[in-house]
Amino acid sequence: MSPSTQRALMQAEKSGPLSIQTTEIYKPLASEILIRIQASALNPVDAASQRSGVFIDTYPAVLGLDIAGDVEDIGEGVTDFKKGERVQVFTQGTFEIRSRAFQQFAAVKASTVARIPDSWSYDQASALPVVVTCAYVGLYNQVPDGLGIPPPVTEASQGIFNGTAIVVLGGATSVGQIVIQFAKFSGFSPIFTTASSKHAAYLQNLGATHVFDRNISSSELSSKIDQLYDARQVSLVYDAVSSASTQQTGLDVLSPGGKMAIVLPLSEDVKVPDGKVVSSILGLMTVPQHRELLETLYHDKLSGWLESGVIKPNNIEVLPNGLEGIVEGLSRLEAKQISASKLVAHPQETI
């Protein structure tokens, strides 16, 4: 029998501190499942939410969007899972407190839940949802919500871009790593990326064909690309960093008529030339125009792609002390002390 209360990392007011509180366990509504959360991954958006209240409508609030765990209960109309079934699953939570990640149980839409393959751990699966969603939407949703590339959901749409280049700025970011792997799955070659040189071999293993130093100037980057590929034909850029400088670099290397996806709003200091298109990506399931694309991804495709190795696990660092460890983890994210790895907490270890 499931317990009636749980432990949650809660924020009482905007910009306030986080503290562990006892709260209710939600009853799954129609089309929902209740997940006993075994692993919750941290994202920069969580630190931003704590600091400024972005994506939070009411308080007290629970943060966190990346969830992996076991099916604990099911709501009316759910047929893909059974009550009491010990199935390892993962999903991206929404902004409702009942589906947030920094607690021991969450109720989420069954249509957005994927099973975890036996070869993947809870920790590895929990690191995926936000970054997979952002990468997938940015590549495969239609302009202006993405680059408009045909999603690789059938054999006919996989591997079809051989000989076509894509540039991924910030390949070592969590989003950038997934973008590279999806780009490889879609057949893009060459795949140019920028990153710290220490990550070059790792990114090449993921599918990048050429890794350039992240501090390279846009003119030098264009020159290096031109030595390997006609730089005038670079029609797709995914900027997984999206600072003002990387946005400008992306536009500089992008050919006329090309498209660039960015993961933060366009900087006021950056001007988009006529004929070039910039799509600012909000990689969240709550965005209505993403819903059908993402439900197909999570419900039908993602588990198989993980099992077959299309997507490889991120590097993981597990935080100690259950939910309590998240507080320091968010501080480290805010201070930009994390590189090429994901921080993960274990809510069930909370005292």
UniProtKB/TrEMBL annotation:
Residues 16-345 form the Enoyl reductase (ER) domain. One of its GO terms (molecular function) is oxidoreductase activity, acting on NAD(P)H. Pfam families: ADH_N (PF08240), ADH_zinc_N (PF00107). InterPro entries: ADH-like_C, ADH-like_N, ER, GroES-like_sf, NAD(P)-bd_dom_sf, Trans-enoyl_RdTase-like. It comes from the Eukaryota. This is Enoyl reductase (ER) domain-containing protein. It comes from Psilocybe cubensis (Psychedelic mushroom).
